[in-house]
Amino acid sequence: MKIRLMMAIGLSLCLLAACGDTEIPTETDYNQTMVNIGQDMKENAQGTMDIVNNASYSSFEEVYNDYSTRLANSYKESAKQLKEEIKNGDDMNALTDSCAEKVKQLDAIAKEGTETISGMASVNPGWEEDYSPYIQKLNNENMAYGSALNKVIMEK
User: Fold this and answer.
1) Do 67 and 116 form a contact (C-beta atoms < 8 A)?
2) Model-wide pTM > 0.70
3) Is 92:156 a contact under the CB 8 Å cutoff?
4) Terminus of the chain with fewer CB atoms < 10 Å: N or C?
5) Would you give the distance in Å from CA 64 to the centre of its chain?
6) Degrees (nearest 5) of the Cα angle 101, 104, 107?
7) How many CA atoms lie within 13 A of 81 on its CB side?
């Protein structure tokens, strides 16, 4: 009986020791995590500020017009390339992959445009004009162009 009790206690201690292998975060880990988050936020903010500072726009409408034109040009070129790929006999998987890449390019243009508009608004909050309609129009155009590219390969 004593032997069984001693074995049970020993086994329990082994199990407790095995469970103790997980590392408990220290205050230093927490502080470093917060520093890392702060650095990430700073880098993202710096990227937005770089876009704003490198742009010489005088209004949200001017930014919208520029990026809207960029979206239209990218769409035209992408649709032309997809039609060539269809004509060359690319299979549906290749066409789908190509289309997805082209939609990503459109997304990147729209994202840069919306970041520029948002950045301008944050740099000069005194502007009385509301910037959100321009962001919404730019995003709507982006989605329409993406849908149109998908339609090109679906009508194959």
Assistant:
1) yes
2) no
3) yes
4) N
5) 20
6) 160
7) 18
At 153 the three-state DSSP class reads helix
Q: Tell me the three state secondary structure of residue 102.
A: helix
Distance CA 94, CA 134 (A): 34
Using CA atoms, how far residue 71 sits from 6, 76, 91, 101, 148, in Å, is: 76, 9, 26, 14, 12
Residue indicated by tokens 């790929």: 85
Express each pLDDT in 68-113 by its tens digit: 999 999 999 999 999 999 999 999 999 999 999 999 999 999 999 9
* Residue 49, token pair as written in the block: 């500020």
CA 14, 15, 18, 24 dihedral sign is: negative
CA distance 104 to 49: 23
Two structure tokens written together for 35: 């520093």
